[in-house]
Write a structure and sequence with these properties.
The protein is mostly beta strands. It has a single domain, classed as Lipocalin, CATH 2.40.128.20. A hairpin with a 6-residue loop joins strand 4 and strand 5. The longest helix is centred in the N-terminal third of the chain and has 9 residues.
Length: 187
């Protein structure tokens, strides 16, 4: 599986349950959220714009994905909602890894480019280094409708949080028909 296939398999509506362990406080908390993941073609304006923002040739974009989330964590009653665009750019010498452009980071609310690697076990590893922290996520499918994710978030100078998520597919995103398919359906 390559990253484009991973994004395609991830498309749809998901319910996510998370358990996070805050190592500095020696406490854990749970959370839940709804995710919507939509594939975006490499030629879409938002993919092209993100590439240009990072001064990367848009022709190198493999695809794009829009990820939208809405959830809560146990410790705070605050809603955590947002969305971001993800665009993978393959390394020409090692096509199973490369840069992952993000419109907005998860740990810090600013654009950030990380790295991705697709393992031989079809697991996707994402590594992002922010100004003050390091994030590493590993995502894989236990079945077509069950995706698992582990992550660590390390503040420079100390290890701060580890998380485990199980994500259950609640629905598949309906792809828009091509113009030819739409014309055929209307006849």
């Amino acid at each position: 599986m390559d990253i484009t296939e991973f994004f395609q398999q991830s498309s749809g509506k998901w319910f996510s349950q998370r358990t996070s362990h805050h190592l500095a406080f020696k406490q854990s908390e749970s959370g839940k959220s709804n995710l919507q993941i939509d594939m975006i073609v490499a030629t879409a304006p938002e993919v092209q714009q993100l590439c240009e923002q990072y001064a990367i040739d848009p022709a190198l974009a493999l695809c794009g994905a829009r990820v939208t989330w809405d959830g809560t964590m146990e410790w705070d009653e605050e809603k955590h909602a947002g969305s971001t665009i993800l665009v993978p750019i393959a390394d020409p010498d090692q096509p199973n890894q490369g840069k992952l452009l993000r419109e907005m980071g998860y740990a810090e609310k600013a654009p950030v480019a990380g790295r991705y690697s697709m393992g031989s076990d079809n697991a996707l590893t994402l590594i992002t280094e922010y100004e003050t922290m390091y994030s590493e996520e590993r995502l894989w499918f236990a079945s077509p409708n069950l995706r698992l994710r582990t992550s660590i978030l390390k503040r420079f100078g100390g290890f701060s949080m580890a998380s485990f998520c199980s994500e259950i597919r609640m629905g598949v995103t309906q792809a828009s028909p091509s113009p030819a398919e739409a014309a055929a359906q209307s006849q």
